[in-house]
Amino acid sequence: MPKLMIIIASTRPVRAGEPVGHWIRERAVAHGGFDVEVADLAEIGLPLMDEPNHPRLGKYTLDHTKAWSARVAAADAFLIVTPEYNHGFPAPIKNALDYLYGEWQHKPVGLVSYGAVAGGVRAAQALKPVLQYLKMIPLSEQVIIPFVAKHIADGVFTSTPAIDESATVMLDELVRLEAALRPLRTR
Q: How many CB atoms lie within 10 A of CB 9?
């Protein structure tokens, strides 16, 4: 079964990303198309890029980079759970992406964005050119969660039928695209 890595992008001590990330993990497991892993950037704690060599070379010298590389290389597809900070995405996801290069290539990525009235749409749109440069394939289908704070109580995210349906549609497409891209990754 292909492996899906769900990356929780926010590292703030009090954040909506954790409950949203756990919700989408449950949805992905129930969907059944992937073996699911969560990579919480708050727990991983990557320092700001500190490798002496360019990521394209894959000549990693630091243990935290080698561990991150192995996790990302083992994944076949990704979901990035991202908030919108000041019309953009948070720095930890850019840093985590920038650590590596080849490990991301030819893998599909879905976005789960959240925020206030815009639901993180601007963050998702700003993230897509970065993903495309890494030769990832961002889906058109995505999950958008406006007014996320209204959906969280006692650390648990409660969805709506519309949000659930958008997750199902995105996961269905992620399964199809992962299978189509697999030959590019096995060369």
A: 29
